[in-house]
Amino acid sequence: MSRYVAALPALSDQYARLTGLGLDLPPLHADLEGDLLVVHPRVVSAAGLAPLLWLDERPGFVVEDLTDLAEFGPAPGVEVPDAALYAVSAPGRGDEFANLSPNEVDPQIRAAGRDLMTVSEGICWALQVPEVIERNHCFMTTGSRKVGRRLGALDSRVPALWISNGAGRDGTERRGVPKVGWCWAGNRHTWLGIASVGGRSG
Questions:
Q1: Closest Cα partner for 154 from 92, 83, 71?
Q2: First and final C-alpha spacing in the chain
Q3: What is the CA radius of gyration of the chain?
Q4: 21-59, pLDDT tens digit by residue?
Q5: Which of 88, 112, 138, 155 could lock onto 162 through a cystine, CB 3.0 to 4.6 A?
Q6: Is 163 helix (H, G, I), strand (E, B) or coil?
Q7: CB of 191 within 8 A of CB of 184?
Q8: Predicted local confidence at residue 149, as pLDDT
Q9: Strand (E) positions, the chain?
Q10: In the chain, domain spans
Q11: What angle separates helix 119-128 from helix 11-20, to the nearest 10 degrees?
Q12: Nearest partner of 55 among 120, 133, 119, judged by Cα
C-alpha cells in the first residue's frame, strides 16, 4: 500500500457507487475537483455510512461504546466545505505513522502541508476502495473530534477504522468485518496509521 493512495475512479463513478448503495444524494456538480467524493455528515452521518462497509456479505458497524459518534465534528483547524458533496485530494492512510500517537503525529501532518482526515472521509474512502481497511494496516481519523466536558478541552478519543477480531461486545459473528471504533489520542498502535488528506474542495 503506497503512502498516498490515488487509485480511485472518477468522481462521477464514485457518485454512481454511492447512489447504487441506496444513498439519496443531491446531483453531483460537474466542476467539482478532487480524488475522493465525500458525503457531508449532515446529509448522511458516519454512523449511517458504516453499515455500507460490507465484507464477506456482512455489514460494517460502529462499536457499541461509540454511541456519541454524531457528536464528533471537525477537529480544531479542520475546515470541511459546507456542501452536501465535496471532494478531498490525495487521501493517505498514514502507514508511516504506525506506532505513533495522534498527539505526536497531528502536528507533523499539518507541518507537511496536509490536513487531518475526518471519519466520514475515511468511511467514504473505504466504500470506494475497500482494501484501504486491511488487517494490521488500518487507520485513525483524527480530523473528527468531540468537545470534552471541560471548556475548550477535547474528548481524548479519536475515531478509527479497522477489522474486528470478533472479541468482546463485537461478537464472534462480526469477526473479519470493518468497524468504526475509537482510540485514545495519546496511545500508540503498531497496526493503526493516522490518515490525512492533501486538501478539500466543495
A1: 71
A2: 28
A3: 16
A4: 999 999 999 999 999 999 999 999 999 999 999 887 888
A5: 138
A6: strand
A7: no
A8: 75
A9: 36-39, 61-62, 73-74, 85-89, 115-116, 138-140, 144-145, 157-163, 178-184, 192-194, 196-197, 199-201
A10: 11-201
A11: 90
A12: 133
